């Protein structure tokens, strides 16, 4: 046998799975520009007491040992906060991993997913990874999940339904009645992805419906209102059998010990973590009002930390970027032609965005 530092000739490569051959790795651009408003993170860092408290707890971890596989302490803390049993809660590395585990457990080539459009851009990616056929169902002209949309979803006879609430990228929440209808008119696992729910009204969540709807799964994350996008932690709340089923597909020790304890400390400091929500809501409403003053700009009502807007400017994304402002470009997506999504940042960042936009529109 010989070894060589020379790169393999192309002919020697093993081709990737055929359905992945033309795929570009998913992800919004991570560009080093002054104003980054493209991935719906919170602008403020975690509260000042957080990392010192984490450091104090980390020093006593036994990192030579594997972590607690079912991450009981974290699940108990989450369950106590949600008014559920620990057997109804399950955490993973971001809510994206939660969604993937649900697709691995309940999807597959013989199953079918239905998700709404516009909706979260990761749903098609996750379905493809999990080899699960998917149907996209259009929301109505106002991007609402109406009774007609439910009828269309039900007609596809899905095994899983994926619904973001509030919707990403639109910002509107889905009403409890629509979720009840989805559950009543399908035999599917109804997965409501509440990544932004903490930014809305206290009664916006469908969590209280867990008592009533046996196939409801509520998915949440620490990445958005909890200001911990760098931690990669998300969770689900559902019936206990869902939690048992996802354990059939999770990797052993998928949630590392450092992350488990960091999540626990975050929950202990929940009030300090979530204290910024009113500021975000006020800023969102201020930016939305300013956008509505601009001629030719349409903006959707939002209960999240971002706004979807449509302008007549063809290359708005590039022209804002030239001015140092990074937003999320949806302008070439079906149903979102001419749209960009802007995350609510600090007041200064939001002003920089508005100034750049006015400049482009002038
Ligand atoms: C941001 C976002 C998530 C969060 O994913 P994580 O993996 O938890 O960071 C999930 N769903 C939607 C709709 C999102 O916008």
From TrEMBL:
Its cofactor is pyridoxal 5'-phosphate. It comes from the Bacteria. Pathway: Amino-acid biosynthesis; L-histidine biosynthesis; L-histidine from 5-phospho-alpha-D-ribose 1-diphosphate: step 7/9. The keyword Transferase applies. The keyword Chloroplast does not apply. Residues 35-357 form the Aminotransferase class I/classII large domain. One of its GO terms (molecular function) is histidinol-phosphate transaminase activity. GO terms for biological process: L-histidine biosynthetic process. Its EC number is 2.6.1.9. It holds the Pfam family Aminotran_1_2. SUPFAM superfamilies: PLP-dependent transferases. It catalyses: L-histidinol phosphate + 2-oxoglutarate = 3-(imidazol-4-yl)-2-oxopropyl phosphate + L-glutamate. Keywords: Amino-acid biosynthesis, Aminotransferase, Histidine biosynthesis, Pyridoxal phosphate, Transferase. InterPro entries: Aminotransferase_I/II_large (IPR004839), HisP_aminotrans (IPR005861), PyrdxlP-dep_Trfase (IPR015424), PyrdxlP-dep_Trfase_major (IPR015421), PyrdxlP-dep_Trfase_small (IPR015422). The modification N6-(pyridoxal phosphate)lysine is found at residue 224. It is an enzyme of class 2 (transferase). Belongs to the class-II pyridoxal-phosphate-dependent aminotransferase family. Histidinol-phosphate aminotransferase subfamily. NCBIfam families: hisC (TIGR01141). Homodimer. This is Histidinol-phosphate aminotransferase. It comes from Egicoccus halophilus. The lineage of its organism: Bacteria, Bacillati, Actinomycetota, Nitriliruptoria, Egicoccales.
């Amino acid at each position: 046998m010989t070894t060589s530092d020379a790169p393999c000739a192309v002919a020697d490569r093993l081709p990737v799975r055929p359905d992945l051959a033309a795929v570009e790795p998913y992800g919004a651009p991570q560009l080093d520009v002054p104003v980054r408003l493209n991935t719906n993170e919170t602008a403020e860092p975690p509260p000042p007491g957080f990392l010192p408290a984490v450091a104090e707890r980390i020093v006593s971890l036994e990192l030579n040992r594997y972590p607690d596989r079912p991450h009981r302490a974290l699940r108990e803390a989450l369950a106590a906060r949600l008014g559920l049993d620990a057997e109804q809660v399950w955490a993973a590395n971001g809510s994206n991993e939660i969604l993937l585990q649900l697709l691995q457990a309940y999807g597959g080539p013989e199953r079918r997913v239905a998700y709404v459009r516009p909706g979260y851009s990761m749903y098609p990616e996750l379905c493809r990874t999990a080899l699960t056929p998917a149907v996209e169902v259009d929301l109505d002209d106002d991007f609402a999940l109406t009774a007609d949309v439910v009828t269309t979803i039900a007609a596809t006879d899905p095994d899983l339904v994926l619904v973001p609430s509030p919707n990403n990228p639109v910002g509107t929440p889905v009403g409890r009645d629509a979720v009840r209808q989805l559950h009543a008119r399908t035999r599917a696992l109804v997965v409501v992805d509440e990544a932004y729910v903490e930014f809305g009204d206290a009664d916006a969540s469908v969590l209280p419906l867990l008592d009533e709807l046996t196939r409801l799964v509520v998915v949440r994350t620490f990445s958005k209102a909890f200001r911990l996008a760098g931690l990669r932690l998300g969770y689900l709340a559902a019936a206990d059998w869902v939690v048992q089923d996802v354990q059939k597909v999770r990797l052993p020790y998928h949630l590392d010990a450092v992350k488990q304890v960091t999540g626990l400390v975050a929950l202990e400091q929940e009030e300090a973590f979530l204290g910024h929500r009113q500021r975000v809501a006020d800023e969102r409403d201020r930016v939305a009002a300013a956008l509505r003053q601009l001629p030719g700009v349409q903006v959707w009502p939002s209960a999240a930390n971002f706004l979807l807007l449509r302008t007549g400017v063809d290359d708005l994304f590039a022209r804002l970027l030239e001015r140092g402002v990074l937003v999320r470009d949806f302008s070439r997506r079906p149903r979102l032609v001419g749209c960009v999504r802007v995350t609510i940042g600090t007041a200064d960042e939001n002003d920089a965005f508005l100034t750049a936009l006015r400049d482009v529109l002038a």
